[in-house]
Amino acid sequence: MDAAHHSEEFGTRFLTRFADCQDALSEPGLQVPDRAWCARELTRWSDHPAADFFYSSMLATNGPDHERLRRPVARTFTARRVAALRAQVEAVADELVDRFAEAASGGGPANFQDLVGQPLPVAVVGRLIGVPDTERDHLAELGRGATRLLEPVRTPEDWAAADRAVVALREYFADVLRQRRARPRDDLASALLDQRGPDQRPLTERELVDILLLVFVAGFETTAGLLGLAVFALLTHPDQLALVRADPALRPAAVEEALRWDAPVMMTERVAARPLEIAGTRLPAGASVTTVLAAANRDPRRHPDPDAFRVGRTGTKVLSFSAGAHHCLGAALARLEGAALIGRLFDRFPALSLAGEPVRRDSVALRSFDDLPLAAAG
Asked: Where exactly are the transmembrane stretches of this chain (predicted)?
C-alpha cells in the first residue's frame, strides 16, 4: 500500500507513518497554507476577518515572515521562563482542584473539563499575557469560536463563528496594548512592545495584536484537551494509574504517554512549495499533504505495541506538538501543566473515578472533552 494515501475528495495526501510525518513536518519545501494560498484556494472567504487573521498569523506564515513573528514569542517561552512558572502553575492547579472538590462534595458527578481542564491553561496563559481573571472565561469562549478554522472542512457557520470571535478578540487585545503603552507590566503584552529592535523589521500594530490573540487561543485550547485526555487515560487504565501514584517521577512520563496515545491535535496540513518527494511519492508544486499526527504517534515501527497505554514506555517521541519550524512554542509549558495537575488531582482524590459517559468535542482536528464527569469518591 502506498504510504501516502491520495484522497480525491479532500484534495490531499494523508500520511500516517511516524517517519513520513516527521519528514514532512521538517521538510522546508513543504510549507503551511499561507495568505497567498488562502487568496488562491479560499476566494469565497479570503476577505473575512478570521481568514485575514489566521492566514497571516504565525501558524500560517513561512520562511522569514514566520521567523520574524515567532522570534519575540520564543524569547518568552524559554526553558528558564517556563521553569519559573512552575510555582504559579501549581498554585492555579491547587485552586481549581479545590473548586472541583467543592463541586463533587455531594457525591455526584462534576464536569472536570469545565472546572479544571479548561480553566487551568486559560488562567496560566492569561496571566502570562496579562489578561485579568474576570475576563478569561469570556475570552476563552471566543477562542473556541476562533479555532473552528482548524477544521479541515469549514462550514459557513464555522466561518461566521470564527469571524465574530476574531473581531472581538482583536478589539480586546488592541486595548490591552494601549493600556501597556501607558502602564507597562511584567507580561507578554508589555514585552512585545519592547521587541522592536534593530535586528528585525518592526512588528506592525496588527501583528502585535494578532500575536497576543494567537498565543492566548493556542495556549489553552490544545492544553485543555491534553489535560482531560490524560486524566481519562489514567482513569481507564487503573494499573498504570497505580504506577503513577506509587512513583511521582512517572508523572511527566504519563503526560508523554497520553500525548502519544490520544493526541489533542489530530492532523496538520502542508503544501508543496516546489516539486519534491515525500514518503516515496512525487509531489507536484501546490500539492497538499496532511500529516495524521494521531496515527503517527501509534505507528508500531516507532512505538511497539502502540495501542497499549504504558507510562513506563521508553524511547517515546511524539509529534503531538508538530515538528520542524512550526514546533509548538508552548510544548514545555503544556507538559508542565499536565504533570502538575496529575500530581495534585490523584494525590487529593485516591478514589477518583468516571461518573458517567464522557462527551467528546465535536471536532475533526482537535481531541478534547466537552463533558468529563468525575466523582471524587468511588
From this structure: 211-235
Domain residue ranges of the chain, discontinuous segments joined by +: 4-375
Cα angle value 33/267/208 (rounded, 5°): 50
> pLDDT digit of tens for each residue in the chain (378 aa)?
467 888 888 889 999 999 999 999 999 999 999 999 999 998 888 889 999 999 999 999 999 999 999 998 998 888 888 888 999 999 999 999 999 999 999 888 999 999 999 999 999 999 999 999 899 889 999 999 999 888 888 899 999 999 999 999 999 999 999 999 999 998 999 989 886 555 567 889 999 999 999 999 998 999 999 999 999 999 999 999 999 999 999 999 999 999 999 999 999 999 999 999 999 999 999 999 999 999 999 999 999 999 999 999 999 999 999 999 999 999 999 999 999 999 999 999 999 999 999 999 998 889 999 999 999 975
Q: Which residues contact 73 (CB under 8 A, 6 or more apart)?
A: 58, 188, 211, 215, 329
Which residue shows C-alpha cell 476563552? 140
- Listed residue (172, 193, 169) closest to 181, CA to CA: 193
Report phi then psi at 19, rounded to 5.
-60, -40
- The secondary structure of 288-316 as a DSSP string is EEEEEHHHHHT-TTTSSSTTS--TT--S-
Whose grid coordinates read 512558572? 85
Extract the C-alpha cell encoding 309: 497505554
pTM exceeds 0.70: yes
Q: Tell me the three cell numbers of residue 169.
A: 478578540
For Cα atoms 219, 220, 226, give the angle at the middle one, nearest 5 degrees.
110
**CB distance 5 to 289 below 8 Å:** no
Which class would CATH give 4-375? Answer: mainly alpha
CA distance 56 to 84: 31
CA distance 291 to 180: 39
Beta bridge partners of 354: 374
For the CA atoms of 31, 274, 301, 268, what is the dihedral angle to 10 degrees? 30
Name the one residue in this structure whose C-alpha cell is 496571566. 127
Helix H or strand E segment including 281: strand 281-283
Beta bridge partners of 290: 14, 269
